[in-house]
């Protein structure tokens, strides 16, 4: 989170997203919702100690490095956030109650405690919506070029949760569209020594999240990758996982079913309608 005064002013003038341009003809778009632990100066430290910004509550550890390396290896475009999920969570819908976290994994966030509807709307307009607009622009460009986008969203998870170890090295989260997920699960399961989670450590059906908005609702093939954080904390681990996905993903882009826009609906939408 910390940076010197000159980098603060420069960083604060940048858009709240980072775009990596891909090679012409690439139909894969790589996303990293929680790439950064940066908090703009106007929010101070949100009342938290520097140590809290090195934890998963602030960003997805290791995933900016994995995303940039994978985009470079595949010549694929990428969109990454430039703000901490503690400012506003880009992987939540605008009406999600966890869009702005006041308490996250035991840490009270004083800078968010008194945020009212106007403050949340301000953060959505400044950070959340421009990030999603940037994603939409990349997807629209692929469609305009006459192809069907494929979306790969990169995340990381903690090795343990509430004292319980998580055995998976990697997991794929998905809702009802399995066109990309199923073959990627099979490919990962053939990798020596990997424990692979299917909708682990979380369920991938969440109304309003990034893949619901840009994948499910638009009918584009998509999946969310979760890599355990202890495996990607350093550059060597990030490179290893980027190389793995750079090897496994390209053959899946040749599958005929990934070249069609198909609407599968959402388990989460069904649950919401019943409730």
- Tell me the number of helical segments per DSSP (H or I, 4 or more residues long): 8
Give the mean pLDDT. Answer: 94
Strand order of the largest sheet: 1-3-2-6-11-9-10
Instruction: Pick out the low-confidence regions.
Output: 1-9
Counting DSSP E segments of at least 2 residues, the number of strands comes to: 11
Going by helix content, strand content and strand pairing, the class is alpha/beta
Instruction: Assess the beta-strand content as a share of residues.
Output: 15-25%
Question: Quick summary of this structure?
Answer:
This protein is of the alpha/beta class and 275 residues long. It contains eight helices and eleven strands. Helix 2 packs across helix 7.
Topology diagram in text:
Blueprint: H1 5-13, E1 17-20, E2 28-32, H2 63-74, E3 78-81, E4 103-104, E5 107-108, H3 110-113, H4 117-144, E6 150-157, E7 160-161, E8 164-165, E9 170-173, H5 181-189, E10 196-198, H6 210-216, E11 222-228, H7 235-248, H8 267-274
Parallel strand pairs: 2-3, 2-6, 6-11, 9-10
Antiparallel strand pairs: 1-3, 4-5, 7-8, 9-11
Helix pairs in contact: 2-7
